[in-house]
Amino acid sequence: MELLETLSTDANYSAQTYFEAAKSADFWSRVIVFFPALVSAAAGMVTAFYSVRIGGPISAISGAIAATASFIGSGKQAGFYRDSARKYTNLRHAVRLEISLAGAKTEAEMEEITRALFERRQSIVSTDEPVPNRFFDRASSRISAGVTSYNQSGGT
User: Fold this and answer.
1) Cβ(102)–Cβ(1) under 8 Å?
2) Could you tell me where the DSSP H helices lie in the chain?
3) By C-alpha distance, which of 40, 36, 33 is closest to 59?
4) CA atoms within 13 Å, Cβ hemisphere of 21
5) The pTM of the whole model exceeds 0.70
6) What mean pLDDT is predicted for residues 31-48?
7) What is the three-class DSSP state of 129?
8) Which DSSP string corresponds to 46-71?
């Protein structure tokens, strides 16, 4: 049972860490596309209305940056992180279910279930993209504040 509790905690922290990483990656991917596009539009307008020569090259370069970022899919990493977060969340729910049903199972059944859940975790870990430690720190703070608690509204 102690191993399942550890696995549940690990899945909880991993899920929240990957959700934090996904939020950040999504934000930055939008900034990489939106900001240069906005600069390009503004420079184009300045060039058109005020005949400022520098506006044309600025508009062209900014537009090229925005187009390139959009083309290479700057938001893909956020999707990878979100997918991992969902897998860890599903694992956490499966572990919590098995913990709640443990009283009706034999020791051998619980050992088999625990091994299967740990294998499932290893499968998730083997396909994860690593995330910077700062996202784990954010996740820890949010978990400490109760973001994953069922006792608060909006918790997962």
Assistant:
1) yes
2) 2-50, 55-71, 76-101, 107-127, 133-144
3) 40
4) 27
5) yes
6) 88
7) coil
8) HHHHH--TTHHHHHHHHHHHHHHHHH
